[in-house]
Description:
By secondary structure, the protein is α/β, with parallel strands linked by helices. The chain contains 10 helices and 10 strands. It has a 7-stranded mixed beta sheet with strand order 3-4-6-7-8-9-10. A 3-stranded antiparallel beta sheet has the order 1-2-5. α4 (149-160) crosses α6 (186-194) and α9 (256-270) packs across α10 (295-317).
Amino acid sequence: MIDSDSWSPELRLRGLDQDKRAVSLSVLADSSQEEDLSEPANCSGLGRIRHFTHTTANGWPDNPLPWLPARRHLGAGAVPSAGCKAQVFQNSVCNWRCWYCYVPFSLLRGDPAKSRFVTADDMVDMYLGLDDRPVVLDLSGGQPDLVPEWVVWTMEALRERHAQDRVFLWSDDNLSNDYLFRYLTEDQLEVLSSYQGYGRVGCFKGFDDTSFAFNTGALPELFDRQFTLFERLLTIRPDTYAYVTFTAPAIPPTGAISAMRRFADRLQALDDTLLARTTPLRIDVFTPVAPRMRSAHQTALTVQEAMVDAWNTVLAERGVVPLFDQPMAELTTAGHRV
Length: 338
Ligand code: SF4
């Protein structure tokens, strides 16, 4: 098991240069992750293009992220179809080791040989200078919230370049720590809260503590913390979205439906509209994942299919209308602190 709380301060040190307002970004060029990219790494090897598509596998709900919130901000002219391209940068530290992570673990420990410190200003300049620039800028990881200043500095850089209205900023968070609240100033929290054209997604790494620990290598009790952190995030951005992964070593003894009802109860207890904003992610085996696979992981790929069936059943029981089917005007509007 990983002792995330002991490890995270060191990772933050490796991942952040506060004085220079710089963050350690993974060098993707020539990494094993690059083999899975549809286009070569860009921005001096630090960035990549990701094609988000809304359709997934049979039986899996459509994925509206980040396409739908980007379209709401930028308009149908800028984001015309149900899918979008994004420019992705990955910070180089993460405090979990999910067996299904498509990032090589060597790019998650802040290794200076595999990463480079870059200021948000320089990163945004590289992005804005791209030919055929994607309208979505995705700050991914790693765990971006080990260095929550990154998102705020990027917002400030986009504002200074008057790019706020032509870029949709997206970031993800593994819901492992409270650094956003611990290290950002009140002014920075205000920027995060009030910035239009930003979407944030928190990733639930399982549907119960057993699946969570199996997936992340972290202590099972940290599953509960994911909900506590998500609740706090809603005070900053009430429109925060969620992902969930359903891989587990086995179907729970109480049955898939029963386990999924409990998980759905917990999401709804945070926010009655959160079920509609939650997207299950199907785990596939990318190049860095294959060497990590053991028989339990093969089983988990099968379990996720049963669990998504249970998810679909529970959403139908509760009359949840997927985001795709909701009128744009009825979607939760962008965040204000509550
Ligand atoms: S939290 Fe994300 S970046 Fe970290 S190991 Fe898990 S999947 Fe990879």
